[in-house]
UniProtKB/TrEMBL annotation, chain B:
Protein name per UniProt: ABC transporter ATP-binding protein
Gene3D superfamilies referenced in this protein's UniProt entry, alphabetically: P-loop containing nucleotide triphosphate hydrolases (3.40.50.300)
Ranges where the ABC transporter domain occurs: 2-230
Top-rank taxon: Bacteria
Keywords for this protein: ATP-binding, Nucleotide-binding, Translocase, Transport
Molecular-function annotations in GO: ATP binding; ATP hydrolysis activity; transmembrane transporter activity
Organism: Aureibaculum algae
Family: Belongs to the ABC transporter superfamily. Macrolide exporter (TC 3.A.1.122) family.
Record's GO cellular component terms: membrane protein complex
SMART domains, A to Z: AAA
Keyword Hydrolase annotated: no
Record-linked Pfam families: ABC_tran
UniProt-listed PROSITE patterns: ABC_TRANSPORTER_1 (PS00211), ABC_TRANSPORTER_2 (PS50893)
Length: 414, 230
């Protein structure tokens, strides 16, 4: 068999038979090539989209929930319904002490304020934040730093601004670091500028000032806008969401079944919807790719069958001259393996090139729709091997036909 | 060399069957030049195909080169054809995309002969049939007589025991017929057993022995007086 593979005559036979049937060879190669090309491109693109979502989600603590106070919807302990609820600084400690599996708990505040920079003004959200926010929602700093412990302790009049806000308040190219913004008549020094990958997970953008500064300037006393809570590994964030809300109803003297008293938003829920969609997309990709591949392989088998029918007389001659059935069979099988291999290789090469083009076109920078659209080599090798194995099996059908008839019948056919 | 005893062959035709060979007995010694005569449909080709191991008989014995042919699988048959038998067909049966030289060397390829030796031997036989200069021509570039010479060279190249020719001159005009018959006679004079089918008297008369077939039975079997023709 090895000798057969390296025999010049073997390849000359294959070459002449392929050359004799240019059109069919071409159609076959295109069929299989298209299949593996689609598989590579679809898998690569799906991977690219997945990677993109990963980089976005990578900035967020995905097992997190936001909780805020609303109005009661049931009367309780002498209170009428419709009582306005506000979370308090003290709630944080109580929740932390009571609820198990909390990784982080972060109070935040927000108010809309008029922001002035020389002649430019803008009304935007101003947040009171702790440094911890940078951990839960990664802030990609372009210049400077995020709020730090020092700012909190000394209630500093500093602020960190988001890129979109910056664009509306400054001329292009102006370095904002060290300059001052007037927010509701109070002056803050800019210590950092960051860029958001994507606006999601609660109100974002705008301007961040130290939480303690916010409390003081806006006279918030112990009020908290909302709480952001993340669960430790292995704890169910949805259960935690329910537990915290139940506890808050207790603390704030709200009817235990008053579902509307406290609002919440679960990030994990939202993200699992997206990842579910991604998984579906990947599955579809595989399905389409494999179906196309199989169709290509069947096309090869069909074409070989036609070839063999046309070559029956020739096969009869060869058998009269002493060709053993095994020799005829392996010739035809090798022909099909050769075709599938060539076509598969071309498909992989073209698929790779297209992925490179896609990457160059839409895969660069922060605005990229795809990140690193690639296909694993083992995946390709498996697809390739499957293709060749199927090609062999399919090649067996015409090969078997070619040797199953008696040589005299083959010779009689013209 | 070839011995046939009480050979029967039928072709199934739907529910019926067509009894073509009805108990033939024939013995051909080494070095003979035998021609089978008979009208069309008398079973000549059927007999030759069985002798050539391209088809199987139903009943009786066939002994080739001292070996009883029975329960032959296709692999063994292929080896025997390659080793002992050389075929010449009415329609030449050359492979149309191979040159004369490649066609002639093909049996050697299946005999497992190395490439270089194959080429040399094939060239030798092409020269023997007078077509050395046409080695690199495709069959489509050759005349009928030339094609049949290539086919004869191909039949000879493995140095078989018998040349089997089914109406080798059937597609040729009279001049080329003579040259092809001269070639077969020459081969026979060198000691090769030649077994020819024909329905032309002039062709048969150039052999050394004529066997006449009619309706599946041998009706005569006689030596030819070659001096008459000469
Ligand atoms: N494969 C076959 N199936 C059925 N009938 C056949 C087959 N081959 C030959 N025959 C019939 O057998 C008879 C003898 O055929 P053949 O040996 O070719 O005769 P010849 O060569 O003398 O003309 C003919 O009637 C022919 O039609
Ligand atoms: Mg005939």
């Amino acid at each position: 068999m090895i000798k057969f593979l390296f025999d010049r005559d073997t390849w000359q036979e294959i070459y002449s038979s392929i050359r004799k049937n240019k059109l069919r060879t071409g159609i076959t190669i295109i069929g299989v090539m298209w299949g593996i090309f689609l598989l590579v491109v679809l898998l690569g693109a799906a991977r690219g989209v997945g990677n993109k979502f990963d980089t976005i989600f990578g900035d967020f603590a995905t097992n997190s929930v936001f909780i805020w106070g609303q109005q009661t919807s049931m009367p309780f302990k002498g209170f009428q319904e419709g009582k306005q609820l506000r979370l308090k600084r003290a709630d944080v400690g109580k929740i932390e002490a009571e609820i198990k599996g909390i990784e982080y708990i972060l109070p935040r505040n927000i108010t809309n304020s008029l922001v002035v920079n020389e002649t430019k003004t803008l009304t935007t959200g101003v947040f009171g934040d702790y440094p911890l926010l940078d951990l839960l929602q990664k802030k990609h700093m372009v210049f400077g730093r995020f709020i730090n412990e020092n700012d909190i302790v000394y209630k500093k009049k500093v602020c960190v601004i988001e890129n979109e806000t910056y664009k509306q308040l400054f001329d292009k190219g102006v370095n904002p670091l060290g300059t001052y913004l007037t927010i509701n008549e109070v002056s803050y020094q800019i210590v950092g500028l960051y860029k958001n990958q994507m606006r999601m997970g609660g109100p974002q953008g705008g301007i961040h000032i130290p939480f303690t500064t916010f409390q003081q300037v806006y006279n918030q006393a112990d009020n908290i806008g909302w709480l952001m809570v993340t669960a430790s590994e292995g704890f169910d964030i949805r259960q935690m969401e329910e537990d915290i809300k139940l506890m808050l109803r207790n603390i704030h003297s709200v009817h235990p079944e008053d579902e509307r008293a406290f609002g919440s938003f679960n990030m994990g829920d939202q993200i699992s919807k997206v990842t579910g969609f991604l998984t579906g997309m990947q599955f579809l990709t595989w399905f389409v790719g494999i179906a196309t591949l199989i169709a290509g392989v069947f096309a090869i088998g069909n074409i070989l069958l036609i070839t063999v029918k046309e070559r029956t007389n020739e096969i009869g001659i060869r058998r009269a001259l002493g060709a053993k059935p095994a020799e005829i069979r392996r010739q035809i099988i090798l022909e099909s393996i050769f075709l599938t291999t060539i076509a598969g290789t071309l498909g992989i090469i073209f698929g790779g090139l297209v992925l490179m083009l896609i990457n160059a076109a839409v895969g660069q920078g922060d605005e990229a729709t795809l990140v690193n659209p690639t296909v694993d080599i083992p995946v390709i090798l498996i697809a390739f091997a499957t293709l060749v194995v199927l090609g062999t099996l399919i090649g067996l059908i015409p090969a078997q036909r070619a040797v199953s008839i008696r040589p005299i019948e083959a010779l009689r056919e013209e | 060399m070839i011995e046939i005893k009480n050979l029967h062959k039928s072709y199934p035709m739907g529910k019926e069957s067509l009894h073509v060979l009805k108990g033939l007995n024939l013995k051909i010694e080494e070095g003979e030049f035998v021609s089978i005569m008979g009208s069309s449909g008398s079973g000549k080709s059927t007999l030759l195909n069985i002798v050539g191991l391209l088809d199987v008989h139903d009943e009786g014995d066939y002994i080739l080169n001292g070996e009883l042919i029975e329960n032959l699988n296709e692999k063994k048959a292929a080896v025997l054809r390659n080793k002992f038998l050389g075929f010449v067909f009415q329609s030449f049966n050359l492979i149309n995309y191979k040159t004369a030289l490649e066609n002639v060397s093909l049996p050697l390829y299946y005999a497992g002969v190395g490439r270089k030796e194959r080429q040399e031997t094939a060239m030798e036989y092409l020269e023997k049939v007078g077509l050395g200069a046409w080695a690199n021509h495709l069959p489509s570039e050759l005349s009928g007589g030339q094609k049949q010479r290539v086919a004869i060279a191909r039949a000879l190249v493995t140095q078989p025991k018998v040349i089997l020719a089914d109406e080798p001159t059937g597609a040729l005009d009279s001049t080329t017929t003579d040259s092809v018959m001269d070639l077969l006679k020459e081969i026979n004079n060198e000691g090769m057993t030649v077994f020819v089918i024909t329905h032309e008297e002039e062709v048969a008369e150039q052999s050394k022995r004529i066997v006449r077939l009619k309706d599946g039975v041998i009706i005569s079997d006689e030596k030819v007086n070659q001096k008459v023709k000469a």
